Structures are given as structure tokens and as C-alpha cells.
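Deliverable D5.2: sample structural annotation.
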Amino acid sequence: MELPLVVGVDGSDAGLRALDWAVDEAARHGLPLRLVHASQWERYEGVAPPEHAPAEQAIADRVIGTAAERAARRNPEVEISVQVLADDPVTVLLREAPYATAVVLGSKGRGEFADLLLGSVSLSVAARAAHPVVVVRGDKAGLESGHDRVLLGVGDTAPGSPAVRFAFREAEARGSVLDAVRAWRCPAYETADRAERAAGPEHHYEQRASALVDAAVAAEAEEHPAVRVRRTTVEGPAHKVLIRRSAAADLLVLGARHRHGHFGLQLGRVGHAALHHAACPVVVVPRR
């Protein structure tokens, strides 16, 4: 049996956009949808409940019930289950992640700066989960899959990595082009050897990037012959290249090697920047 998509719902506008995206994604892949609400969400995001507010459980029941009704209206054929769990949202969602195809979250919190900053819950879960996490963000065309393009950031990616497999499955299910992109840069101090001088040192780095893209996608391209693959190399910092190209994509897929640290943010620079600034939903797929 396929694992469900798990959606963290909190009643926010960003959370509702993530819910709509998740319903469409579940229908696309024929997956069940599991809606999860952490009953301590407001306190975690730093929003004090209003005076004389209903009991926390009543609020939680209303949030999850409204989300379930919205999901059912959007696609009655998607199998939906719901649960309210009395814990902080990061703990709840990290606990759910091993039993999900992916965890889906909105991009913004509910606090004072919700319109500016990535929500603390979304960032914490994406940084710490050992399974795929989707942060839903972007413009209307991206959220409604209007670009017919899945963007795969090819980093130091081993062939057949979980991120590459995830990207191919998405492109196949959507009937989209898979845009496999590797950014490259030529160090200013670099000098070419005699064989490379005619073309310049840039040629060496561009060719190396092209070879890495080919190697990363070769095995999955054979497994998914119907997927149209566009192999692209672009000069520039990886995070800027991918954020710029995300404006013409429906999903940005990134592999992540989590950095172990004493505090919070453990994603690399590319993942961290994409989660804050990409113009389409972003899925972080950890390397196992």
C-alpha cells in the first residue's frame, strides 16, 4: 500500500494553499491524504490565543474539520483521513515523516512577519526530516502546474539518488519536461593546462558540469523513457541559478545532505535559499 501524503494544517492562508496543492498531488499519484493538526500550533508560532477563545481542543477540531471539508470539495475521489495530535508541530510532523510519501507544508507562519518570512515550522521540518518535505510557495501558475516543467537541481548528486528518482516520478506523473540543471563557476585564480588553453578554463568547468548532469540522470532516464529530459548547465552561484529558473517551474526538487549542528538550521545554502525565495513549491529530498 502506498504511503499517504501528510499535510500539516494550521488554518492559515499559506496552509490552505498547501492543502489545495496536496489534494491535487494526491490525486495525480493516486495516494491517500492524511491531514494532521498539532494542537499547540498557535503557541509554537508565537501567537497568543485571543481572550475568551474556545478551548484549544475545540479550536483544533474546527481547524482540522474545515481543512477536511475543503479537501473533499476540491477532489471527492481522494481518500482523506484526519488527526489532531497534542504536541508541538515540528515534533508531530517529524514523527509522521517516516510513514509518508512526503510531508507537505505551507511556506509562511502565522506570526507578525508571516508575509515576509518562511514559517519556523516549515523551515525546521525541512531542515531536520529524514524523508521528503514539500514547502508550497510560488505564484498562481506554479501552484496550478501551469508551466509543465519540473526543475531538478543537480548538485554533488550520486546517480540514482532519491532526489533524482523523485524528480523523474513527478515529471512522469505530470507529463512535464524534467529540467536537470547544474550550476558551475570557474575560480578566478584558476589556470588551464596546455590542452585546455585554446578553449579557456571555463570550458573545462562547463564540460565537467555537463558530465555530472548526464551521470546523475542516466539511469532514471532509461527507467522513464516517456520523460523528456532537458540537461542544462549554467554559469553562476547555484542558489541564484535555481531561484531564477524556478519562476518557470511547477516544482523544484533538491537533494539535501543535512549538516549536523548544535542549533536549528542544518540545510545547505542552496536549500535554505530556495525555501525562502523560490517562485514555485520546493521539495527537499534527503540523501540517505
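Annotation notes: The longest helix spans residues 201-223. The chain has ten helices and ten strands.
The annotation will be released with the project's public dataset once the embargo ends.
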